[in-house]
Amino acid sequence: MSSAVGSDAAAPSLSERAYTEIEELIITLKLAPGSALSEAELALHLGIGRTPVREALQRLARERLVMVLPRRGVVVSEINVASQLRLLEVRRELERLIARSAARRANDEQRARFRAIAAGFETAASADDGIAFMRTDLEFNQLCSSASHNEFAANAMSLMHGLSRRFWYLHHAHAADMPRTAKLHAAIARAIATADEDRAGAASDRLLDLIEKFTFDTLQG
User: Fold this and answer.
1) Domains of the chain by residue range
2) Distance CA 97, CA 102 (A)
3) Cα gap 99→95, rounded to integer Å
4) Domain 14-76, second-level architecture
5) Residue 16, Cβ neighbours under 10 Å: how many?
6) Which long-range contacts (CB under 8 A, 24 or more apart) does 84-90 make?
């Protein structure tokens, strides 16, 4: 996997690496909904031990990207449009809160990373690169949660981002405007970097407007 924006950060733990790589396999549908997962096979594929893989799968189960089923083991969760619509109702309020909080509370190092992430989104938009966009989006989400200094909002958002990215990846080729989506993310990142709380909240609402339209467009499609 290519390095993420802000590669000067400390190297991730094996558990974090396992989580990031398995999550991307699920998000990009390389591990399809309904697929049964094997700890041993994933460990071999990733080149790491089974314990980090088990920890990553436990985290992914909390985020509802996988399910642990009796007699079937670990299975990639199905994609549910009705659930996605309910998720968006909550996500709008939390995204705005987190964006505003991050704009108010981020430290100088985090603001510098937000500027770099904004540039990463704009590069992905120019190249119309969906994979680069999603990798940048993962770091953006994690940084927003950290910079908001609100563990309750951050924990709630962690249950939504993976499901949202997978839904987007499934439908983006025929229903999404990826460059515009990336630029709206960049606008939030730049507002946070400049400590503009109101602009961050407004940019978050514009992004959710687009995401809601995208979700309804998939239903019409």
Assistant:
1) 14-76, 81-220
2) 8
3) 6
4) Orthogonal Bundle (1.10)
5) 14
6) 84/163, 84/164, 84/167, 84/215, 85/215, 87/160, 87/163, 87/164, 88/208, 88/211, 88/212, 88/215, 90/156, 90/160
SS (HEC) of 16-78: HHHHHHHHHHHHCCCCCCCCEECHHHHHHHHCCCHHHHHHHHHHHHHCCCEEEECCCEEEECC
**Please, is 101 exposed, middle or buried when counting C-beta atoms within 10 Å of its C-beta (0-12, 13-18, 19+)?**
buried
Q: Which phi and psi angles does 9 have, rounded to 5°? A: -70, 165
Q: Quick one: 81-220 is in which CATH superfamily?
A: GntR ligand-binding domain-like (1.20.120.530)
Residue corresponding to tokens 């079937």: 72
CA 206 to chain centre: 18
DSSP state for residue 9 in the 8-state scheme: S
The CA distance from 60 to 68, in Å, is 10
List per-residue pLDDT tens for the chain, 221 residues long. Answer: 334 444 444 567 999 999 999 999 999 999 999 999 999 999 999 999 999 999 999 999 999 999 998 888 999 999 988 888 899 999 999 999 999 999 999 999 999 999 999 999 999 999 999 889 989 999 999 999 999 999 999 999 988 989 998 998 888 877 778 899 999 999 999 999 999 999 999 999 999 999 999 888 887 75
Give the three-class secondary structure for 12. coil
Q: Is 26 exposed, middle or buried (0-12, 13-18, 19+ CB in 10 A)?
A: buried
